[in-house]
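Sequence design from tokenized structure. All designs in this work follow the same two-part layout: the structure record, then the generated sequence. An example of the structure record is given first.
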């Protein structure tokens, strides 16, 4: 199984001025966040070229969320719909919580509990707590001002398909 450890902020949303529709937004506790449709399309491109599964390493995994236009659905359902995938078929888990919040350790713990993983990649805009614990060649850093670019998506594909970077 190929696994992509996915952060949300700075990857699927960013500070870029892409127009977003009402159904691109979700409420996360008392804040409003969105899934940028262009960035989600790039994640769809990654999934289509790797057949990877998603493990959430984002802080979003700690929040109960729901879409204001469909309050019975949470953000995972909204993202699955935007990815055009069944939630249970694409999302295979989330990293456990490390007491110190060190995501590299959380990723390693998840991997140690899942020996079926053949290949993995981490995509995140903040990697300071990841790089000391995860092989640099498996980490793809995004820029929070632009999110998941085509170039970064291609890097993820190369890592997951074993072509290196």
């Amino acid at each position: 199984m190929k696994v992509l450890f996915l952060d949300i902020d700075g990857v699927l949303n960013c500070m870029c001025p892409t127009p977003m529709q009402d159904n691109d937004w979700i409420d996360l506790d008392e804040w409003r966040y969105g899934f940028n449709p262009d960035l989600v399309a790039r994640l769809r491109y990654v999934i289509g070229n790797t057949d990877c599964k998603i493990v959430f390493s984002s802080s979003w995994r700690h929040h109960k969320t729901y879409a204001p236009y469909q309050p019975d659905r949470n953000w995972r359902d909204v993202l699955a719909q935007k990815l055009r995938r069944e939630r249970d078929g694409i999302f295979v888990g989330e990293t456990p919580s490390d007491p110190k919040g060190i995501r590299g350790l959380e990723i390693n713990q998840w991997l140690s509990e899942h020996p079926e993983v053949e290949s993995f990649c981490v995509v995140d805009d903040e990697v300071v707590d990841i790089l000391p614990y995860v092989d640099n060649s498996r980490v793809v850093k995004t820029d929070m001002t632009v999110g998941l670019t085509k170039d970064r998506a291609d890097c993820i594909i190369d890592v997951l398909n074993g072509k290196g970077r």
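The radius of gyration is 15 Å. We note this feature because it recurs in several other targets discussed in the main text.
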